[in-house]
Fold this sequence. Notes:
By secondary structure, this protein is of the alpha+beta class. It contains 18 helices and 12 strands. A 3-stranded antiparallel beta sheet has the order 1-2-3, with helices on one face.
Amino acid sequence: MGITKRSGSPNWYWQKTIDHKKHRLTTNLPRNTYSKTQAKKLMAPYIKEYLEKIREPLLMENSKDLKVSTMLALYLKDKKREWSQSTKANYPRVCKNFRDYFESSTLLHTLWLSDRSGTKNLHDWKKLRYQHDVVETTINTELDVIKSAYNHIKDNYAIYKLGKELNKSHWKSLREIEPDQPDRSIELDDFFKIFFALPPHAQNIVWFSLIGLGVRKLNVTSLNYNQIKGDKIEFWVKSKKKRRINNQIVSGKIHNVPITEDVYNLLSGQKLYFETEENHQARVQCLNLTGTGNLYFETEENHQARVQCLNLTGTGNLFLYNGKPFKDPKKTWSNTQKKLGITRIGKNNKPTHKYTIHGVRHTAGSIIGVELGDDYSQRALGHTTMQVTRNYNKKDMQMKVIGMKKIQEVVHKWTQSNNTNNDLDEKSQKTGGCLGTRTPDPLGVKKNTQ
């Protein structure tokens, strides 16, 4: 609320809600203080002092100091069995980085101290992460890990009685403002360049992820024959939201992907059906634009190599590498881009791969969003909210061009259905207006043909 006063009262006061608690501060201001600006200026130092006091971590009674390394070790020990595979791959690494930085002597209550306190704290840790060119999103994700560890110890280990208690306002003040997410979808020209250069075992994963409505990497690599239910494939997607399935409360949901002709051809070991740019250009020269011609099939050599990386026995995991389940195509995907020169400037001004493997999912979502709309894209990708789906469809300019064409189409239909010989239509045809034939643009403005 800020600084205010009741109607008819000469007394100003400050009031604000922090962590669902109302805080109110009143001071004895001079009698001639009538404007809100004067009251705000006079109360500023008192408000600042009061905020520092309530935000300072409170010392708990009969407390026993706890080391950061001990807190992280207990957190990993208790929670590791409950995590998904992706969490198991990331959280232990983040906890290890925290333990290496804070060492074994840093006490938990020093995390909130200022960067001028002389002890290792989260403020200094953030500065170090920025020096290593770590982005704001990654910093916030790592802060969530240590926050989860702190809350776990606070809720389950009352015997420790943490040296100092941190509330929501402390963690919120540490978070960084994240920039808008860039478009992570892959241009189709770059996608097929990367795809044809991938080894056969990685082609299976990437192609299924694209044609399977952008299925996540973890779901594809762990795909098992038990998940095939008739004409669909069931994927289990973990989420924070709890649901009741078969009288059991679970954290997650089932995401179904239909088995189309393309999916069946891939999983049954048949040749893939697509066309290269070189073949397309050669084929177009042989067409009179009334026929279709023959499309390009993958080579027999690549087909045989790719089939050897598929499990066609009917049991176990479908995608293999050297006879074992293929775990992660991330390294193969990035190395292939570097060989092709599809790179961008990354950390320490060093070239790195331009697209992530998760960009295949963004590509599928972007194609569906542009062609059919965000509603279809949300259902196809299995998102709970539209806000997440919009991050997958960044083709704003294409959507604007489609919208402008629709407006033009509706206007033309209206003019044709009404009196097309009126003065407005004749004038526009003579002058090259919006409803008539356009004249050459003397400024040379380029049309957007997306």
